[in-house]
Design brief:
Strand 13 (229-232) and strand 14 form a beta hairpin. The chain has helices at 2-34, 45-53, 60-63, 68-74, 77-86, 145-149, 269-274, 321-326, 431-439; strands spanning 91-99, 103-110, 115-118, 125-128, 135-138, 164-165, 168-172, 175-183, 186-195, 200-204, 215-219, 222-226, 229-232, 235-238, 242-246, 251-255, 276-285, 288-297, 300-310, 315-318, 338-340, 343-349, 355-362, 367-370, 375-376, 387-392, 395-401, 406-412, 448-455, 460-468. The protein has three domains: 38-89, Monooxygenase, CATH 1.20.1280; 90-121 and 333-416 and 444-468, no CATH class; 167-331, Neuraminidase (6 Propeller), CATH 2.120.10. It is globular, with a radius of gyration of 28 Å. The longest helix is centred in the N-terminal third of the chain and has 33 residues, at 2-34. The strands form eight sheets. Strands 6, 7, 8, 9 and 10 form a five-stranded antiparallel sheet that branches. Strands 21, 22, 23, 24 and 25 form a five-stranded antiparallel sheet that branches. A four-stranded antiparallel sheet has the order 3-2-1-30, with no helix packed on it. The protein contains nine helices and 30 strands. The chain has 469 residues and is α+β, with helices and mostly antiparallel strands. Residues 37-83 form the F-box domain. Keywords: Kelch repeat, Repeat. It holds the Pfam family Kelch_1. InterPro entries: F-box-like_dom_sf (IPR036047), F-box_dom (IPR001810), Kelch-typ_b-propeller (IPR015915), Kelch_1 (IPR006652).
Length: 469
């Protein structure tokens, strides 16, 4: 009997000890979580970061709500450095649209999940530029440059163009940048940065010159702003100046101004005063900046080729004649192009109002060549931008609206659709590109396919960029 009671007593004591131990263990785990000691209990943070780095970025917005520790980890540079090391970075498309009341909205597209994410609203900028001029706001860009440049010829006392527009957009070092713009016909210097890691906007160092409708390009991990317009004594005047931004130092530096050599050789002083030189397009290609130029006199634009900036020589030279002549015009005063996998592409409207054709440039022969097939581009004559071009995941993409006012992101198969009818022309690609074209000559793969759509209603397309994080 005594031995039995002794055993029962021992079991009771043991069970109580185990219960207390479990309670203390739970308390320690709870205190550990409350103290944010570990991202995932029982795992070192180094392992937890490795796990988080493998999760699709589209999930990060909700994952920030798990705890303060998770939020801190997800917005840390360490996490995105690990993603680079693991090769799990994802390239997204960032699209700027303009909706009612001249409001500007950014959207990000994850092309793999085909899900859209709305970005925070761009903040307004309030400042006083000159005594007596009042407080102005900078919102964004989108008005056709032709309508603004027409202001050069509008007499004093007539109504000025819309008050907020003309900002330029670029993407570098994993962030979006919105540069300058017009505010009550005055060009501003302000620069805003959107950081996808923080999902927030912040103001950066201003440009050295206030400019609107400038052209932007990325070269050697630096952001270039070239040309544009600013306000002079007699109204808006075109700019020949250019500057470059280093995201690592946060400093803007001036580079030599564009010579606009074609504008310097006009036969009479009257024409020189009448025709305004303006940069209408720019692209980074083969380690240089290629800037398309025009001479403008309302309501006409006269293409005059362009100029090329060499960062190593820090000099401008004339653009190859064939490149300037064949560079298609998107709309009056704008030439659009994109470089994908070291090839330069542009889009040119076809004879049909609801389609366009892709052109590719060959630097060896200084010629452009059409690719097979039409890309469906609906005719939006009143739209400020009927289409945009982007290089996403190593492929050419066209962003346009369909007949139902939905935004379509179309991937264009340029590799397998070279125009056989143009084979007699003097045109050559590099060997790898040419081999791919020949191997796909008999393919029946369609030229384009829709990878994502979004209801746009009355929204207008403004600009787009891609970021890989």
């Amino acid at each position: 009997m005594g031995s039995i009671l002794s055993v029962n007593s021992s079991k009771t004591v043991t069970s109580k000890v185990l219960e207390v131990t479990q309670i203390e263990s739970c308390k320690r785990q709870r205190l550990s979580c409350e103290g944010n000691a570990r991202l995932i209990p029982s795992l070192p943070d180094e392992i937890s970061i490795q796990i988080l780095a493998r999760i699709p970025r589209i999930c990060y917005l909700k994952m920030k709500l798990v705890s303060r520790a998770w939020k801190a980890a997800i917005v840390s540079t360490e996490l995105f450095n690990v993603r680079k090391e693991l090769g799990t970075t994802e390239e997204w498309l960032y699209l700027l649209t303009k909706v009612e009341d001249d409001k500007f909205l950014w959207y990000a597209l994850d092309p793999l999940s085909r899900r859209w994410q709305r970005l925070p609203i761009m903040p307004g900028v309030s400042f006083e530029d000159e005594p007596g001029k009042g407080i102005w706001n900078v919102v964004g860009s989108s008005v056709k440059i032709a309508d603004t440049v027409r202001g050069w010829f509008v007499k004093k006392g007539q109504q000025a163009p819309l008050p907020f527009h003309g900002s330029a957009v670029g993407a570098i070092d994993g962030c979006l940048y919105v540069l300058g713009g017009l505010s009550k016909a005055s060009a501003v210097r302000c620069v805003w940065q959107y950081n996808p890691v923080l999902n927030a906007w912040s103001e950066m160092s201003p440009m050295s010159t206030g400019r609107a409708f400038c052209k932007t390009g990325i070269l050697n991990k630096k952001l270039y702003a070239v040309g544009g317009v600013t306000r002079g004594r007699g109204g808006l005047i075109s700019l020949q100046s250019a500057e470059v931004f280093d995201p690592h130092t946060g400093v803007w530096s001036e580079i030599p101004s564009m010579p606009f050599s074609k504008a310097q050789v006009l036969p009479t002083a009257f024409l020189a005063d009448l025709l305004k030189p303006i940069a209408t397009g720019m692209t980074s290609y083969r380690g240089k900046l290629f800037v398309a130029q025009s001479l403008y006199c309302w309501p006409f634009f006269v293409d005059v080729g362009g100029e090329v900036y060499d960062p190593e020589m820090n000099l401008w030279c004339e653009m190859p004649a064939g490149m300037g002549d064949g560079w298609p015009v998107k709309q009056a005063g704008t030439k659009l192009s994109v470089t994908v996998e070291d090839e330069l592409y542009a889009l040119e409207p076809s004879s049909s109002l609801d389609s366009a054709r892709i052109k590719v440039y060959d630097y060896r022969t200084d010629t452009w060549k059409f690719l097979v097939g039409d890309v469906p581009i609906c005719d939006f004559s009143n739209s400020e931008s009927s289409y945009l071009l982007a290089g996403l995941l190593g492929e050419l993409h066209v962003i346009a609206k369909d007949g139902n006012n939905n935004i379509r992101v179309m991937q264009v198969d340029v590799q397998n659709h070279l125009d056989s009818s143009s084979s007699s022309q003097s045109f050559s690609f590099n060997d790898s590109f040419h081999q791919k074209a020949e191997s796909g000559a008999e393919s029946e793969t369609p030229l384009w396919r829709v990878i994502a759509t979004r209801s746009a209603r009355s929204a207008d397309l403004v600009s787009c960029q891609t970021i890989d994080l």
